[in-house]
Amino acid sequence: MPLSALVAAVLLLLAASGRALAASQELPLFREAPAFRNGPGCAAAPTIHIAMTLDAAYLRGSLAGVLSVLRHASCPESIAFHFLATRPRRFRPAVATSFPSLAFNVYRFDPDLVRGRISSSVRRALDQPLNYARIYLADILPSSVRRVIYFDSDLVVVDDVARLWATDLSPDHILAAPEYCHANFTSYFTDRFWSDPVFPGPLAGRRRPPCYFNTGVMVMDLDRWRAGGYTRKLESWMDIQKREARIYELGSLPPFLLVFAGEVKGVDHRWNQHGLGGDNVKGLCRDLHPGPVSLLHWSGKGKPWLRLDAGSPCPLDALWAPYDLLRRDDRDDLFADV
């Protein structure tokens, strides 16, 4: 084969490979959600700020979460969304296409902020830098955002989020979340942690005995967070874990427990019916906790969109499906079968 022909063939192959790679990195297409408008009495409604993350693996879940919030809100036009992403330009069009009238911003989260502080966890997804973005909300969001609700990307809200926003953080709480004091708090840290003469010390001086809380749903006072330097306090525990001693096994949760457990303003459990994704290893099906439900959270390994696509959903995954905006050729009408 002549050299020119060989070069041409190689270039053709490289171009084809480039197109295949680009195609593999394309985001799925999503449908446009209905427009949600404020009802009577919303003129004096406060602006509710909600923060979430955006990435390729969880984008479908994030959009479903946004739709669920808007669908059940009494004043949806009074809600402002703040998204954190490592590549904002990649994800902004997906949000704008599905929610043309949504008030939102997408901010860049620099993964280098945490890359040197992350240690291996029980599940690879928990080791991704964006999983730690919630630590930096007070630094990334504008100072004009004084309070925010943080939501994970694997949940749906089935109640008016204004009720959660109304949580009273006075006089000096930094964050509010449902607490689970029946959980074995000691199991979230290693024997190395508990045997150390210094590490457990900060837990002893709390207002109440420390309890587990799930960081996928939090109401956060960003003014108090900034004033108290809480980003650095969380980072300091991550630095100990990375450089000094392995004191926990579970991603970004333990630093929050070490800084805030026993100081959290309790919220009704209805606002985080979590664990629906099963455990962090097998992702087994789970039932709801006893009591009313305002928010369903598929924390754990099993995500509803993956189980639905695989044809092996858990029973409760059917409650997530109506909020799925993924476009399918044979189903373009939102809520057509609801």
TrEMBL record:
Instruction: Keyword check for Cytoplasm, yes or no.
Output: no
Give the location in the cell.
Endomembrane system
Q: Which pathway or pathways does this protein act in?
A: Glycan metabolism; pectin biosynthesis
Q: Which Pfam families match?
A: Glyco_transf_8 (PF01501)
Q: Cite the entry's keywords alphabetically.
A: Glycoprotein, Glycosyltransferase, Membrane, Signal, Signal-anchor, Transferase, Transmembrane, Transmembrane helix
Q: Which GO terms describe its cellular component?
A: Golgi apparatus
Bilayer topology: Single-pass type II membrane protein
Provide the top EC class: transferase
Its protein name is Hexosyltransferase
Q: What is its EC number?
A: 2.4.1.-
What's one GO MF term for it? Answer: glycosyltransferase activity
